[in-house]
Specification:
Keywords: Oxidoreductase. By secondary structure, the chain is of the alpha/beta class. 40% of the residues lie in helices and 19% in strands. Bound molecules: flavin mononucleotide. The site of flavin mononucleotide has 15 residues, from helix 1 and strand 4.
Amino acid sequence: MHVLIVISHPRPNSFTHALTQRFAEGAQAAGHTVEFADLHAEGFDPRWQAEDEPQFEDGPSPDDVLAEQARIERCDALCLAFPLYWYGMPALLKGWVDRVFTWNWAYDQVENPDVSLLRDRIGVMLVPAAANTGKWTQDSLGTVAQRIWDEGSMRYFGFKDQRIHVLGGAEGSPARREGLLAQAYDAGQALG
Ligand SMILES: Cc1cc2nc3c(=O)[nH]c(=O)nc-3n(C[C@H](O)[C@H](O)[C@H](O)COP(=O)(O)O)c2cc1C
């Protein structure tokens, strides 16, 4: 299986990057190939512009969007790694989702209103968060955020097998963080 890991964090030595590294090591130990897409390092522009709109009239998409779509087309599993920002994705990653999963490529809403145009893929999210995991699971806001990612976007884009890992306590003790890194490794190894 080929795994694309999309990272949204400005600092290469961040805990988010460390989690992706361990996830990749787990995936490689299970025999998978891994490709990284570091959106900050690559300077991806998350702003939806007038050039993004012709897709709705069967027009072309901008070149940077086509390049991201090509990466997705060659993967069997997509992992999004991002720190939780106000119960959601960082703006950079939200803009990547907005721009890249285009009408007529990811979905159509005309012939098949609820059917993705993409083949089935495994979708993984690695989401470090400062709050502890108990707060996330007890808090209905956590449930809502997870439903928006799952049903509101990723399932819509053909990601049938969703594995959302909210890793609470990401700013905790070294032992706590080591436990979260181990969870990321296990998630990579368990890809299939
Ligand atoms: C703008 C911003 C918003 C944040 N919102 C949340 C939040 O809603 N819930 C939470 O538990 N942590 C929140 N955090 C904390 C980050 O999720 C946490 O610092 C990060 O996961 C740690 O990983 P890092 O060291 O890779 O940045 C927020 C941090 C920032 C900078």
